[in-house]
Amino acid sequence: MKDISMLDDLDRGLIHALHIDGRAPFNKIAAVLHVSTQTVTRRYQRLRATAGLRVVGVADPGHAGHTRWLVRLTTTPATGQNLANSLARRPDTSWVKLTSGGTEILLVVNIPRDAAASRSILLQDLPLAAGITAVSAHYVLHTYLGGPTAWRGHTTALAEHQRKQLRPNRSGPAPRRGLADTDAALLAALQLDGRATLAQLAAATGWSRATVTRRLADLQAVQAIFFDVELDDAHFGATTRALLWMSVAPAHLDRVATALAEHDELAFVAATTGATNLVAQAMCPDPEALHHYLTHRLGALEAIHSLQSTPVLVTVKAAGRFPHPDAAGRRP
Fold it and tell me: Is the pTM of this model over 0.90?
């Protein structure tokens, strides 16, 4: 197997291309990268096998009528992994991570805005789960970095003229509607494989290929869905990852969060409710680099009054559906 920290320029170019358009045909990517279609196809399949590469279609929570919560669970050491696996299998969860020596779980819960549904996992299911000793929930108020905006570590390989060639063409009449209940089967199929063929998506939805093509174009045009790229970030040298929980005075929150969203070391920045009001995920090559980031870059921001860092041990589930062949034991 290839050294986990080493990807060549072609690998990085392919990954960057998929971040720009997750469903771009391989012959289009090949033309931009100046290689053959067969070469791109082989690299894609190899990265799927060795780096856990997967393209997944994700609904924008606002268009889906959902709110997002960051939920922190404290567990007993004996139950953490099994509980994380169980939570990962739920359709309303994403980004399930084991942290802090395996005794804490962080997950994102997507909850419909109606009050009855919002009580299910937060107030009923979680307290009943064996092994949970504490629960805290943080409502995501605003995302500054993350979602459709990829971590910069993934998106440095292509020049601007190459990016321009890959950006989807959004010209044409404005779509009539965003996400609807009838899109559920399409979204479920894209969460399993964002690059599923039109024939596969037609079979999953019961629609014609023409209808699938039209609906995909409409949903992307209004940004109701986007395509995320999942892979083991250790291949990009990010072997030390941590969640950063910060407290910032409200008057400075927007300024600080906007500044953090420009930091190459961060993959996610969001304002939340709770005892801390700003959360981020750091991606660093080693503990010393994380220490330097915390003490020099974050330390220079006097508006950050307090900071708690929790190491991320493993990401059990990312944005896509679970389980899938590469899901178990994925590094964060």
Answer: no
